[in-house]
Specification:
Helix content: 10-25%
Largest sheet: 11 strands, mixed
Distance between the termini: 45 Å
Structural class: alpha/beta
Strand content: 25-35%
Number of strands: 37
Number of helices: 7
Oligomer: single chain
Radius of gyration: 23 Å
Protein backbone atom coordinates (compact mmCIF):
# COMPACT_ATOMS: atom_id res chain seq x y z
CA UNK A 1 0.00 0.00 0.00
CA UNK A 2 1.22 3.48 -0.82
CA UNK A 3 0.43 6.82 0.77
CA UNK A 4 -0.23 10.08 -1.06
CA UNK A 5 0.82 13.40 0.39
CA UNK A 6 -1.89 15.69 -1.05
CA UNK A 7 -5.21 15.21 0.79
CA UNK A 8 -8.54 16.47 -0.56
CA UNK A 9 -9.13 19.20 2.01
CA UNK A 10 -10.43 21.94 -0.26
CA UNK A 11 -12.73 19.56 -2.11
CA UNK A 12 -14.17 18.07 1.07
CA UNK A 13 -14.74 21.52 2.55
CA UNK A 14 -16.57 22.57 -0.63
CA UNK A 15 -18.71 19.44 -0.59
CA UNK A 16 -19.56 19.93 3.07
CA UNK A 17 -21.30 23.20 2.27
CA UNK A 18 -23.43 21.48 -0.40
CA UNK A 19 -24.07 18.15 1.31
CA UNK A 20 -23.59 18.34 5.09
CA UNK A 21 -24.81 14.76 5.40
CA UNK A 22 -22.03 13.56 3.10
CA UNK A 23 -19.21 15.14 5.12
CA UNK A 24 -19.72 14.72 8.83
CA UNK A 25 -17.88 17.04 11.27
CA UNK A 26 -15.94 14.08 12.64
CA UNK A 27 -14.71 13.27 9.14
CA UNK A 28 -13.69 16.89 8.62
CA UNK A 29 -11.64 16.84 11.79
CA UNK A 30 -9.96 13.56 10.91
CA UNK A 31 -9.13 14.77 7.40
CA UNK A 32 -7.53 17.94 8.74
CA UNK A 33 -5.47 15.83 11.08
CA UNK A 34 -4.46 13.35 8.40
CA UNK A 35 -1.59 14.25 6.12
CA UNK A 36 -1.37 11.14 3.96
CA UNK A 37 -3.82 8.99 2.03
CA UNK A 38 -3.48 5.26 1.55
CA UNK A 39 -3.63 3.84 -1.97
CA UNK A 40 -4.28 0.14 -2.51
CA UNK A 41 -3.47 -1.20 -5.99
CA UNK A 42 -5.34 -4.02 -7.74
CA UNK A 43 -4.53 -5.76 -11.02
CA UNK A 44 -6.69 -8.72 -12.15
CA UNK A 45 -4.03 -9.93 -14.58
CA UNK A 46 -0.77 -9.43 -12.65
CA UNK A 47 -1.88 -9.22 -9.02
CA UNK A 48 -1.85 -11.86 -6.30
CA UNK A 49 -4.22 -12.04 -3.32
CA UNK A 50 -2.02 -14.45 -1.34
CA UNK A 51 1.40 -12.85 -1.78
CA UNK A 52 0.44 -9.34 -2.84
CA UNK A 53 0.63 -6.34 -0.53
CA UNK A 54 -1.61 -3.92 -2.35
CA UNK A 55 1.37 -1.85 -3.41
CA UNK A 56 2.10 -0.61 -6.91
CA UNK A 57 4.71 -3.31 -7.54
CA UNK A 58 2.84 -6.06 -5.63
CA UNK A 59 -0.88 -5.43 -6.24
CA UNK A 60 -3.78 -7.57 -5.16
CA UNK A 61 -5.65 -9.55 -7.81
CA UNK A 62 -9.23 -8.88 -6.68
CA UNK A 63 -11.25 -5.91 -5.62
CA UNK A 64 -12.81 -8.17 -2.97
CA UNK A 65 -9.41 -8.64 -1.29
CA UNK A 66 -8.51 -4.97 -1.58
CA UNK A 67 -11.73 -3.85 0.13
CA UNK A 68 -11.07 -6.24 3.02
CA UNK A 69 -7.50 -5.00 3.44
CA UNK A 70 -7.95 -1.27 2.88
CA UNK A 71 -8.39 1.10 5.82
CA UNK A 72 -11.24 3.59 5.81
CA UNK A 73 -10.69 6.64 3.58
CA UNK A 74 -8.26 4.73 1.34
CA UNK A 75 -8.20 4.89 -2.46
CA UNK A 76 -8.43 1.53 -4.24
CA UNK A 77 -6.84 1.97 -7.66
CA UNK A 78 -8.01 -0.58 -10.25
CA UNK A 79 -5.85 -1.44 -13.24
CA UNK A 80 -7.39 -2.09 -16.64
CA UNK A 81 -8.93 -5.53 -16.98
CA UNK A 82 -12.03 -7.57 -16.18
CA UNK A 83 -12.95 -8.21 -12.55
CA UNK A 84 -15.06 -11.39 -12.57
CA UNK A 85 -15.40 -14.81 -10.96
CA UNK A 86 -12.80 -16.04 -13.45
CA UNK A 87 -10.26 -13.65 -11.90
CA UNK A 88 -11.24 -14.57 -8.35
CA UNK A 89 -13.91 -12.02 -7.41
CA UNK A 90 -16.63 -12.96 -4.93
CA UNK A 91 -20.02 -11.45 -5.75
CA UNK A 92 -21.68 -9.37 -4.64
CA UNK A 93 -18.76 -7.04 -3.95
CA UNK A 94 -19.90 -5.22 -0.80
CA UNK A 95 -18.49 -1.89 0.38
CA UNK A 96 -19.23 -1.24 4.06
CA UNK A 97 -16.64 1.49 4.77
CA UNK A 98 -15.73 4.85 3.30
CA UNK A 99 -13.45 4.08 0.37
CA UNK A 100 -12.78 5.55 -3.04
CA UNK A 101 -12.85 2.80 -5.66
CA UNK A 102 -11.30 4.20 -8.81
CA UNK A 103 -10.68 2.82 -12.26
CA UNK A 104 -10.29 5.27 -15.13
CA UNK A 105 -12.88 8.06 -14.94
CA UNK A 106 -11.47 9.78 -18.03
CA UNK A 107 -13.15 7.17 -20.26
CA UNK A 108 -15.84 6.15 -17.76
CA UNK A 109 -14.35 2.74 -17.10
CA UNK A 110 -14.18 1.59 -20.69
CA UNK A 111 -11.33 -0.82 -19.89
CA UNK A 112 -12.08 -1.43 -16.19
CA UNK A 113 -14.93 -3.94 -16.24
CA UNK A 114 -16.72 -5.44 -13.26
CA UNK A 115 -18.79 -8.39 -14.49
CA UNK A 116 -20.83 -10.74 -12.34
CA UNK A 117 -23.47 -10.91 -9.64
CA UNK A 118 -24.44 -12.62 -6.41
CA UNK A 119 -27.27 -12.77 -3.88
CA UNK A 120 -27.71 -9.85 -1.49
CA UNK A 121 -30.21 -9.91 1.39
CA UNK A 122 -31.40 -6.32 1.61
CA UNK A 123 -33.10 -5.12 4.83
CA UNK A 124 -35.72 -3.29 2.78
CA UNK A 125 -35.53 -4.82 -0.69
CA UNK A 126 -35.48 -8.54 0.19
CA UNK A 127 -33.31 -10.78 -1.99
CA UNK A 128 -31.49 -9.12 -4.89
CA UNK A 129 -28.85 -10.24 -7.36
CA UNK A 130 -26.18 -7.54 -7.31
CA UNK A 131 -22.72 -6.96 -8.75
CA UNK A 132 -21.76 -4.30 -6.19
CA UNK A 133 -23.44 -3.00 -3.05
CA UNK A 134 -22.47 0.44 -1.72
CA UNK A 135 -23.56 0.45 1.92
CA UNK A 136 -21.34 3.30 3.13
CA UNK A 137 -20.48 6.84 2.09
CA UNK A 138 -17.97 5.65 -0.45
CA UNK A 139 -17.05 6.77 -3.98
CA UNK A 140 -17.18 4.68 -7.14
CA UNK A 141 -15.63 6.18 -10.26
CA UNK A 142 -14.24 5.08 -13.60
CA UNK A 143 -15.58 1.53 -13.88
CA UNK A 144 -17.99 -0.32 -16.17
CA UNK A 145 -20.46 -2.60 -14.37
CA UNK A 146 -22.42 -5.44 -15.98
CA UNK A 147 -24.54 -8.07 -14.22
CA UNK A 148 -26.17 -10.46 -16.68
CA UNK A 149 -27.50 -12.83 -14.03
CA UNK A 150 -31.27 -13.28 -13.86
CA UNK A 151 -32.74 -9.92 -12.72
CA UNK A 152 -29.21 -8.70 -12.21
CA UNK A 153 -28.52 -5.22 -10.82
CA UNK A 154 -25.24 -3.45 -11.43
CA UNK A 155 -24.90 -1.35 -8.26
CA UNK A 156 -27.19 -1.46 -5.22
CA UNK A 157 -27.12 1.56 -2.87
CA UNK A 158 -28.87 1.39 0.49
CA UNK A 159 -28.82 3.30 3.77
CA UNK A 160 -25.88 5.47 2.73
CA UNK A 161 -24.92 8.51 0.66
CA UNK A 162 -22.18 7.38 -1.72
CA UNK A 163 -20.94 9.22 -4.80
CA UNK A 164 -21.17 7.42 -8.15
CA UNK A 165 -19.23 9.43 -10.70
CA UNK A 166 -18.19 8.88 -14.34
CA UNK A 167 -19.02 5.18 -14.66
CA UNK A 168 -20.76 3.06 -17.29
CA UNK A 169 -23.65 0.70 -16.49
CA UNK A 170 -24.54 -1.46 -19.46
CA UNK A 171 -26.34 -4.69 -20.32
CA UNK A 172 -27.51 -5.40 -16.78
CA UNK A 173 -30.34 -7.93 -16.87
CA UNK A 174 -32.58 -5.73 -14.73
CA UNK A 175 -31.21 -2.36 -13.58
CA UNK A 176 -28.00 -0.38 -13.84
CA UNK A 177 -28.19 1.36 -10.42
CA UNK A 178 -30.79 0.89 -7.66
CA UNK A 179 -31.01 3.44 -4.82
CA UNK A 180 -32.90 2.44 -1.68
CA UNK A 181 -33.25 3.46 1.96
CA UNK A 182 -32.95 7.03 3.25
CA UNK A 183 -29.62 8.22 1.85
CA UNK A 184 -28.67 11.18 -0.36
CA UNK A 185 -26.49 9.53 -2.98
CA UNK A 186 -24.87 11.65 -5.70
CA UNK A 187 -25.15 10.04 -9.17
CA UNK A 188 -23.13 12.26 -11.50
CA UNK A 189 -21.92 12.06 -15.12
CA UNK A 190 -22.55 8.33 -15.66
CA UNK A 191 -23.65 6.51 -18.80
CA UNK A 192 -26.48 3.93 -18.69
CA UNK A 193 -26.84 1.84 -21.83
CA UNK A 194 -28.98 -1.15 -22.84
CA UNK A 195 -30.08 -2.26 -19.37
CA UNK A 196 -33.01 -4.61 -19.82
CA UNK A 197 -35.42 -3.25 -17.20
CA UNK A 198 -34.35 0.18 -15.96
CA UNK A 199 -31.38 2.45 -16.18
CA UNK A 200 -31.96 3.49 -12.57
CA UNK A 201 -34.56 2.68 -9.92
CA UNK A 202 -35.02 5.00 -6.94
CA UNK A 203 -36.90 3.48 -3.98
CA UNK A 204 -37.68 4.02 -0.33
CA UNK A 205 -37.32 7.49 1.14
CA UNK A 206 -34.06 8.19 -0.64
CA UNK A 207 -33.22 11.69 -1.88
CA UNK A 208 -30.44 11.25 -4.43
CA UNK A 209 -29.13 13.97 -6.71
CA UNK A 210 -29.04 12.53 -10.26
CA UNK A 211 -27.18 14.97 -12.47
CA UNK A 212 -25.66 15.02 -15.97
CA UNK A 213 -26.18 11.32 -16.72
CA UNK A 214 -27.24 9.70 -19.99
CA UNK A 215 -29.87 6.91 -20.04
CA UNK A 216 -30.24 5.14 -23.36
CA UNK A 217 -32.02 2.13 -24.88
CA UNK A 218 -33.66 0.51 -21.88
CA UNK A 219 -37.18 -0.13 -20.55
CA UNK A 220 -37.62 2.81 -18.16
CA UNK A 221 -34.74 5.24 -18.23
CA UNK A 222 -35.41 6.24 -14.61
CA UNK A 223 -38.07 4.62 -12.40
CA UNK A 224 -39.02 6.48 -9.19
CA UNK A 225 -41.32 4.86 -6.63
CA UNK A 226 -42.39 4.56 -2.99
CA UNK A 227 -41.53 7.73 -0.98
CA UNK A 228 -38.46 8.76 -2.97
CA UNK A 229 -37.83 12.44 -3.70
CA UNK A 230 -34.82 12.69 -6.01
CA UNK A 231 -33.57 15.72 -7.89
CA UNK A 232 -33.02 15.03 -11.61
CA UNK A 233 -30.90 17.76 -13.17
CA UNK A 234 -29.38 17.98 -16.65
CA UNK A 235 -29.86 14.32 -17.61
CA UNK A 236 -30.41 13.03 -21.15
CA UNK A 237 -32.89 10.18 -21.64
CA UNK A 238 -33.25 8.88 -25.18
CA UNK A 239 -34.45 5.82 -27.06
CA UNK A 240 -36.01 4.28 -23.95
CA UNK A 241 -39.45 2.67 -23.83
CA UNK A 242 -40.50 5.32 -21.27
CA UNK A 243 -38.08 8.05 -20.29
CA UNK A 244 -39.19 8.57 -16.68
CA UNK A 245 -41.77 6.56 -14.72
CA UNK A 246 -43.05 8.05 -11.43
CA UNK A 247 -45.30 6.03 -9.13
CA UNK A 248 -46.19 5.37 -5.50
CA UNK A 249 -45.90 8.54 -3.42
CA UNK A 250 -42.70 9.70 -5.12
CA UNK A 251 -42.03 13.44 -5.43
CA UNK A 252 -39.18 13.98 -7.88
CA UNK A 253 -37.99 17.42 -9.01
CA UNK A 254 -36.95 17.67 -12.67
CA UNK A 255 -34.84 20.52 -14.03
CA UNK A 256 -32.98 20.94 -17.33
CA UNK A 257 -33.43 17.34 -18.51
CA UNK A 258 -33.78 16.20 -22.13
CA UNK A 259 -36.32 13.40 -22.72
CA UNK A 260 -36.45 12.36 -26.35
CA UNK A 261 -37.16 9.53 -28.77
CA UNK A 262 -39.05 7.33 -26.28
CA UNK A 263 -40.86 4.49 -28.04
CA UNK A 264 -43.87 5.13 -25.77
CA UNK A 265 -44.08 8.18 -23.49
CA UNK A 266 -41.59 10.73 -22.23
CA UNK A 267 -42.79 10.90 -18.60
CA UNK A 268 -45.60 8.93 -16.96
CA UNK A 269 -46.98 9.69 -13.48
CA UNK A 270 -49.32 7.19 -11.78
CA UNK A 271 -50.79 6.36 -8.33
CA UNK A 272 -50.21 9.20 -5.81
CA UNK A 273 -46.95 10.46 -7.27
CA UNK A 274 -46.31 14.22 -7.45
CA UNK A 275 -43.55 15.14 -9.92
CA UNK A 276 -42.49 18.79 -10.08
CA UNK A 277 -41.44 19.84 -13.60
CA UNK A 278 -41.21 23.57 -12.93
CA UNK A 279 -43.03 26.66 -11.65
CA UNK A 280 -42.91 30.32 -12.63
CA UNK A 281 -40.53 30.93 -9.72
CA UNK A 282 -38.41 27.88 -10.60
CA UNK A 283 -38.78 27.17 -14.36
CA UNK A 284 -38.19 23.55 -15.29
CA UNK A 285 -36.19 24.12 -18.50
CA UNK A 286 -36.79 20.47 -19.37
CA UNK A 287 -37.12 19.48 -23.03
CA UNK A 288 -39.59 16.81 -24.19
CA UNK A 289 -39.47 16.09 -27.91
CA UNK A 290 -39.89 13.34 -30.50
CA UNK A 291 -41.47 10.88 -28.07
CA UNK A 292 -43.75 8.45 -29.89
CA UNK A 293 -46.60 8.58 -27.35
CA UNK A 294 -47.30 11.50 -25.02
CA UNK A 295 -44.59 13.88 -23.99
CA UNK A 296 -46.10 13.90 -20.48
CA UNK A 297 -48.83 11.51 -19.30
CA UNK A 298 -50.46 12.22 -15.95
CA UNK A 299 -52.54 9.24 -14.79
CA UNK A 300 -52.84 10.39 -11.19
CA UNK A 301 -56.42 11.15 -10.13
CA UNK A 302 -56.18 14.48 -8.34
CA UNK A 303 -52.69 15.90 -8.88
CA UNK A 304 -51.90 18.54 -11.50
CA UNK A 305 -48.27 18.33 -12.65
CA UNK A 306 -46.62 21.77 -12.47
CA UNK A 307 -44.65 22.11 -15.72
CA UNK A 308 -43.78 25.77 -16.19
CA UNK A 309 -40.84 26.89 -18.31
CA UNK A 310 -40.33 23.71 -20.38
CA UNK A 311 -40.07 22.98 -24.11
CA UNK A 312 -42.75 20.39 -24.76
CA UNK A 313 -43.16 19.05 -28.28
CA UNK A 314 -46.03 16.59 -28.62
CA UNK A 315 -49.24 15.86 -26.76
CA UNK A 316 -49.80 15.74 -23.02
CA UNK A 317 -52.44 13.66 -21.24
CA UNK A 318 -54.11 14.37 -17.92
CA UNK A 319 -53.65 17.48 -15.81
CA UNK A 320 -50.46 19.29 -16.79
CA UNK A 321 -50.13 23.00 -15.90
CA UNK A 322 -47.56 24.64 -18.17
CA UNK A 323 -47.99 28.00 -16.41
CA UNK A 324 -47.90 26.77 -12.83
CA UNK A 325 -47.18 29.58 -10.40
CA UNK A 326 -46.30 27.29 -7.52
CA UNK A 327 -46.05 23.56 -6.95
CA UNK A 328 -48.56 21.93 -4.60
CA UNK A 329 -45.69 21.11 -2.27
CA UNK A 330 -42.55 23.16 -1.82
CA UNK A 331 -39.59 21.62 -3.68
CA UNK A 332 -36.35 20.72 -2.02
CA UNK A 333 -33.55 23.24 -2.60
CA UNK A 334 -31.69 22.32 -5.76
CA UNK A 335 -27.97 21.60 -5.51
CA UNK A 336 -27.04 23.26 -8.78
CA UNK A 337 -23.38 23.91 -8.04
CA UNK A 338 -22.43 20.31 -7.41
CA UNK A 339 -18.71 19.94 -8.07
CA UNK A 340 -16.83 16.91 -9.28
CA UNK A 341 -16.72 14.83 -6.09
CA UNK A 342 -13.36 13.18 -6.70
CA UNK A 343 -10.01 14.90 -6.55
CA UNK A 344 -7.00 13.78 -8.54
CA UNK A 345 -5.35 12.20 -5.52
CA UNK A 346 -3.88 9.14 -7.24
CA UNK A 347 -1.67 8.80 -10.34
CA UNK A 348 -4.56 9.44 -12.76
CA UNK A 349 -5.26 12.34 -15.10
CA UNK A 350 -7.63 15.06 -13.98
CA UNK A 351 -11.30 14.07 -13.77
CA UNK A 352 -12.53 17.19 -15.55
CA UNK A 353 -14.90 20.01 -14.77
CA UNK A 354 -18.28 19.77 -13.11
CA UNK A 355 -19.65 21.90 -15.94
CA UNK A 356 -19.46 19.06 -18.46
CA UNK A 357 -22.79 18.73 -20.24
CA UNK A 358 -24.66 15.47 -20.18
CA UNK A 359 -24.57 15.00 -23.92
CA UNK A 360 -20.78 14.53 -23.85
CA UNK A 361 -21.06 11.21 -22.02
CA UNK A 362 -19.34 8.20 -23.63
CA UNK A 363 -21.38 5.72 -25.63
CA UNK A 364 -20.17 2.12 -25.41
CA UNK A 365 -19.85 0.12 -28.60
CA UNK A 366 -23.31 -1.45 -29.01
CA UNK A 367 -22.44 -4.92 -30.28
CA UNK A 368 -24.01 -7.28 -27.80
CA UNK A 369 -22.53 -10.34 -29.50
CA UNK A 370 -18.92 -9.21 -29.45
CA UNK A 371 -16.62 -9.87 -26.49
CA UNK A 372 -16.91 -6.85 -24.22
CA UNK A 373 -13.16 -6.43 -23.91
CA UNK A 374 -12.54 -6.29 -27.66
CA UNK A 375 -12.63 -3.05 -29.64
CA UNK A 376 -14.34 -2.94 -32.99
CA UNK A 377 -12.20 -3.62 -36.08
CA UNK A 378 -12.30 0.10 -36.83
CA UNK A 379 -11.18 1.10 -33.31
CA UNK A 380 -14.49 2.93 -32.97
CA UNK A 381 -15.68 1.28 -29.77
CA UNK A 382 -18.24 3.83 -28.71
CA UNK A 383 -20.51 5.07 -31.47
CA UNK A 384 -24.02 6.16 -30.67
CA UNK A 385 -26.81 4.52 -32.71
CA UNK A 386 -29.72 6.93 -33.06
CA UNK A 387 -32.08 5.50 -35.69
CA UNK A 388 -35.29 7.49 -36.06
CA UNK A 389 -37.65 8.67 -38.72
CA UNK A 390 -35.99 12.05 -39.13
CA UNK A 391 -32.44 10.89 -39.75
CA UNK A 392 -30.53 11.69 -42.89
CA UNK A 393 -30.87 8.84 -45.42
CA UNK A 394 -30.51 8.82 -49.16
CA UNK A 395 -32.66 5.80 -49.88
CA UNK A 396 -35.46 5.10 -47.38
CA UNK A 397 -36.34 1.86 -49.12
CA UNK A 398 -33.01 0.30 -48.10
CA UNK A 399 -33.76 0.42 -44.35
CA UNK A 400 -33.61 -3.35 -43.88
CA UNK A 401 -30.21 -3.58 -45.52
CA UNK A 402 -28.91 -0.84 -43.25
CA UNK A 403 -30.12 -2.44 -40.02
CA UNK A 404 -26.75 -3.81 -38.97
CA UNK A 405 -24.86 -0.66 -39.88
CA UNK A 406 -27.37 1.49 -37.96
CA UNK A 407 -26.21 -0.42 -34.88
CA UNK A 408 -22.66 0.83 -35.46
CA UNK A 409 -22.76 4.33 -36.89
CA UNK A 410 -24.00 7.60 -35.51
CA UNK A 411 -27.16 8.81 -37.20
CA UNK A 412 -27.91 12.45 -36.50
CA UNK A 413 -31.10 14.43 -37.10
CA UNK A 414 -31.23 15.86 -40.59
CA UNK A 415 -29.32 19.13 -40.86
CA UNK A 416 -30.27 21.99 -43.10
CA UNK A 417 -28.93 21.63 -46.68
CA UNK A 418 -26.41 24.41 -46.14
CA UNK A 419 -25.08 23.30 -42.75
CA UNK A 420 -23.18 20.17 -43.77
CA UNK A 421 -19.63 20.58 -44.93
CA UNK A 422 -19.97 20.62 -48.74
CA UNK A 423 -17.62 17.68 -49.25
CA UNK A 424 -18.79 15.50 -46.36
CA UNK A 425 -21.04 12.50 -46.86
CA UNK A 426 -24.24 11.83 -44.90
CA UNK A 427 -23.83 9.29 -42.11
CA UNK A 428 -24.80 6.59 -42.69
CA UNK A 429 -24.88 6.74 -46.47
CA UNK A 430 -27.51 5.10 -48.63
CA UNK A 431 -27.17 1.77 -50.46
CA UNK A 432 -25.69 0.06 -47.43
CA UNK A 433 -24.81 -3.56 -48.26
CA UNK A 434 -26.51 -6.29 -46.26
CA UNK A 435 -24.73 -7.93 -43.37
CA UNK A 436 -22.25 -6.33 -40.94
CA UNK A 437 -19.34 -4.58 -42.71
CA UNK A 438 -17.60 -4.13 -39.34
CA UNK A 439 -17.57 -7.79 -38.38
CA UNK A 440 -14.18 -9.29 -37.51
CA UNK A 441 -12.39 -10.12 -40.74
CA UNK A 442 -14.30 -7.65 -42.89
CA UNK A 443 -12.08 -6.16 -45.56
CA UNK A 444 -11.26 -2.43 -45.71
CA UNK A 445 -13.08 -2.31 -49.05
CA UNK A 446 -16.30 -3.56 -47.42
CA UNK A 447 -16.05 -0.87 -44.75
CA UNK A 448 -15.45 1.89 -47.25
CA UNK A 449 -18.38 0.73 -49.40
CA UNK A 450 -20.59 0.64 -46.30
CA UNK A 451 -20.10 4.29 -45.33
CA UNK A 452 -19.45 5.63 -48.84
CA UNK A 453 -16.12 7.24 -47.99
CA UNK A 454 -12.57 6.52 -46.95
CA UNK A 455 -11.80 9.04 -44.20
CA UNK A 456 -13.53 9.95 -40.94
CA UNK A 457 -12.57 13.33 -39.47
CA UNK A 458 -13.05 13.96 -35.76
CA UNK A 459 -11.94 16.65 -33.32
CA UNK A 460 -10.89 15.76 -29.79
CA UNK A 461 -12.87 17.66 -27.15
CA UNK A 462 -10.49 18.93 -24.49
CA UNK A 463 -12.67 21.74 -23.13
CA UNK A 464 -16.23 22.97 -23.53
CA UNK A 465 -15.25 25.80 -25.89
CA UNK A 466 -13.89 23.28 -28.42
CA UNK A 467 -17.44 22.27 -29.31
CA UNK A 468 -18.41 25.86 -30.03
CA UNK A 469 -15.39 26.38 -32.29
CA UNK A 470 -16.11 23.17 -34.21
CA UNK A 471 -19.76 24.19 -34.72
CA UNK A 472 -18.67 27.59 -36.06
CA UNK A 473 -16.71 25.85 -38.83
CA UNK A 474 -18.97 22.81 -39.40
CA UNK A 475 -22.46 23.52 -37.99
CA UNK A 476 -23.72 19.94 -38.25
CA UNK A 477 -20.77 18.32 -36.46
CA UNK A 478 -21.97 16.13 -33.62
CA UNK A 479 -20.69 14.43 -30.49
CA UNK A 480 -19.32 10.89 -30.77
CA UNK A 481 -16.61 8.74 -29.17
CA UNK A 482 -13.21 7.55 -30.33
CA UNK A 483 -11.04 5.23 -28.20
CA UNK A 484 -12.98 6.10 -25.08
CA UNK A 485 -12.77 9.89 -25.44
CA UNK A 486 -15.28 12.54 -26.42
CA UNK A 487 -14.92 13.81 -29.99
CA UNK A 488 -16.92 15.83 -32.47
CA UNK A 489 -17.43 14.05 -35.78
CA UNK A 490 -16.96 16.51 -38.63
CA UNK A 491 -17.79 14.15 -41.48
CA UNK A 492 -16.84 11.22 -43.67
CA UNK A 493 -15.00 12.10 -46.89
CA UNK A 494 -14.08 10.32 -50.10
CA UNK A 495 -11.29 12.66 -51.20
CA UNK A 496 -8.07 13.20 -49.22
CA UNK A 497 -7.80 16.73 -50.60
CA UNK A 498 -11.12 17.61 -48.96
CA UNK A 499 -9.89 16.06 -45.73
CA UNK A 500 -6.76 18.22 -45.82
CA UNK A 501 -8.83 21.33 -46.44
CA UNK A 502 -11.15 20.88 -43.46
CA UNK A 503 -8.29 19.65 -41.29
CA UNK A 504 -6.37 22.86 -41.97
CA UNK A 505 -9.38 25.03 -41.11
CA UNK A 506 -9.92 23.22 -37.83
CA UNK A 507 -6.25 23.29 -36.87
CA UNK A 508 -6.08 27.02 -37.54
CA UNK A 509 -8.83 27.38 -34.93
CA UNK A 510 -6.58 25.65 -32.40
CA UNK A 511 -8.40 22.32 -32.50
CA UNK A 512 -6.87 18.85 -32.24
CA UNK A 513 -7.95 17.00 -35.41
CA UNK A 514 -7.81 13.24 -36.01
CA UNK A 515 -8.17 11.68 -39.45
CA UNK A 516 -9.23 8.03 -39.22
CA UNK A 517 -8.75 5.90 -42.30
CA UNK A 518 -11.57 3.47 -42.93
Amino acid sequence: MNRLTHPSLSLIIALSSLFPSLVAPAMMNSVHAQTTKTVVYVNPNLGNDQNGKGSRDRPYQTLTRAIAAAPAQAVIQLADGTYSEETGESFPIIVRKSLEIRGNPNNQGYNVKIKGGGDLNSPTGAGQNVAMALLANSTLTGVSVTNQRDRGIGVWIEGASPTVFKNTFQQNDNTGVAVNGRGRAVILNNYFYSNSGNGMVIYGQSQPTVKNNTFERTGFGISITQEASPQLIGNELKHNRIGIMVEGNAEPILRENLVTLSTEDGLVAIAQSRPNLGTSEEPGRNIFRSNRGNAIKNLTKTYTIPASGNQITGETAGKVDVSASVAQRAPLPLNRNLSSPVENSSPQPSLGSSREQVWTAPRPFPNNNAPSNQPSPLNLPELDPVPNANTTRRNPSSRNNRARLDDLLVVEPKASPTSRHPNALPVPSGNIPSGNPFRPGASPQERVRAVGGQYRVVVEIRQASDKTRVKQIVPDAFTSRYQGRAVMQVGIFRDRANVDEIQQQLQQAGLNVRVISL
